[in-house]
From TrEMBL:
Domain of life the protein comes from: Bacteria
InterPro entries: LSM_dom_sf (IPR010920), MS_channel_1st (IPR049142), MS_channel_C (IPR049278), MscS_archaea/bacteria_type (IPR045275), MscS_beta-dom_sf (IPR023408), MscS_channel_2nd (IPR006685), MscS_channel_C_sf (IPR011066), MscS_channel_TM-2 (IPR011014)
Name this protein carries in UniProt: Mechanosensitive ion channel family protein
Family assignment from sequence similarity: Belongs to the MscS (TC 1.A.23) family.
Source organism: Mesohalobacter halotolerans
Coiled coil (UniProt feature): none
Subcellular location: Cell membrane
Entry GO MF terms: mechanosensitive monoatomic ion channel activity
Domain Mechanosensitive ion channel transmembrane helices 2/3, residue spans: 66-105
Residue ranges constituting the Mechanosensitive ion channel MscS domain according to the UniProt record: 107-171
Pfam family, one: MS_channel_3rd
Segments forming domain Mechanosensitive ion channel MscS C-terminal: 181-260
Length: 274
């Protein structure tokens, strides 16, 4: 009796395996073909993006979204091959969608934030931005995250939801930027003496824009010195190199004319005498 049941069980298992074997094989073939098709579609998308000159930020977003949708369709096809009915499959996806939506509310907010970033374009790939105390060049905008590369080589990944709801300082959106330099001088130094020296140094730089022209103004008065602000405009891509070069050029010009940085002074009274 026991050997009969064992043989019967083996027969049932073998029959079951033979029954599902074609579906398993078809599913594996469909998976392999689907992966190859997805890679081909993604290559064609990249060619189309380059041909129609789609901006990089939109490219990265559409690529990540397309991969998500294509793999979803592939798994749906595999489910149908295995034998899952379309109505059951839709019900499973619907229930899973609700569960995932409740579990990933933050991710959905990030997805919506990515849509807002692409729609209103506060920045794009390649822009230099400051957001949430992070400064860097935008490397990539995914469906959920934005990646920045800082000047010291770090990668910062920020959720799109937080970025979309934060103040974004885009430092490369405008074609030109203003350089502000501050200098302090002792009260004995005349403003009419330092102004032409600073302006001459600013105008000597080849990257400085002639319109608006560089200018220099008295900015504030301190206890023992006064502060001068010098300003000039340059193209955005030349901002930082020109900033450091202008700062050094003005310092050299002041040194050549014998104008020194003021030293803090205090008057000490002793018995009414000083």
């Amino acid at each position: 009796m026991d050997s009969f049941n064992l043989e019967r069980l083996k027969e049932i298992i073998l029959n079951g395996l033979w029954a599902i074997a074609p579906k398993v094989i078809y599913s594996i073939v469909a998976l392999l073909i689907g992966i190859l098709l997805i890679k081909l579609i993604m290559k064609l998308l990249k060619i189309a993006f380059n041909r129609y000159k789609i901006e990089l930020s939109l490219q990265s977003f559409l690529e990540s979204l397309s991969i998500f949708i294509l793999y979803g369709v592939l798994f749906a096809v595999i489910g149908l091959i295995i034998g899952v009915e379309a109505t059951s499959f839709l019900a499973i996806f619907g229930a899973a969608g609700i569960a995932i939506g409740l579990a990933l509310q933050g991710s959905l907010a990030n997805f919506a934030g990515g849509i807002l970033i692409l729609a209103f374009k506060p920045f794009k790939v390649g822009d230099l931005i400051n957001v949430n105390s992070n400064t860097g060049i935008v490397e990539k905008i995914d469906i959920l995250y934005t990646r920045l590369k800082t000047f010291d080589g770090r990668i910062i990944t920020m959720p799109n939801g937080n970025v979309a709801n934060s103040d974004v300082d885009n430092r490369t959106m405008e074609p030109i930027r203003r350089i502000n330099l501050e200098f302090k001088f002792a009260f004995e130094i005349k403003m009419d003496l330092v102004r032409p020296i600073i302006l001459e140094a600013l105008n000597a730089h080849p990257k400085v824009e002639k319109n608006p022209e560089p200018d220099t103004w008295l900015d504030s008065l301190g206890e023992s010195d006064f502060k001068v602000i010098a300003r000039c405009w340059v193209k955005t891509e030349y901002y930082w190199p020109t900033y450091w070069e202008q700062l050094e050029a003005v310092k050299k010009a002041l040194d050549e004319n014998g104008i020194e940085t003021p030293v803090p002074r205090r008057i000490i009274y002793d018995g009414g005498k000083y």
